[in-house]
Design goal:
single chain, 164 residues, mainly alpha, 5 helices, 50% helix, globular
Amino acid sequence: MIIDYESFTGLLSVGINPDTGAPSITRDAELGKIESYISVYEQEYLIRILGEDMCKAFTDYLNSKEDSVDDKWDRLLAILSEKYSPIACYIFFKYIADGNYSVTNVGTVTSANGDAVSPQVLQIRAWNDMVNMNKRVYKLLQGKEYAGVCFNPCMLRKINCMGI
């Protein structure tokens, strides 16, 4: 994985404070939840910006990094692993979409007292920040050494409160 739970602080905070030193079942559950989102949606993000074949080449490179050096992949990795990462923004967008829902043995429920609010404002900000960072990624991927990249154009489109 390129990012980890530490990417979800500040503007992308999901309420996890893993470094308090005190053990916590809730914290461990939240860490497990964000790590599961990272494992699914980091891959989805990479497929959207690289396409299936180039994503496989990139992840193969990351998995065998100590064996070889490839400047083109290192340049991409540098952008994607910045502290405020486009990958983290994409995952945050997905993560908080599910935040107002809980699955129970009687079905999916929302907050009983009506205090739950829509995460839409935060999602819009995270998505549009990701788009701004993706413009740098897209520019990099236009180089000849990245021939074969299949960049999904939706990753360069900003959204608004109407979802367009």
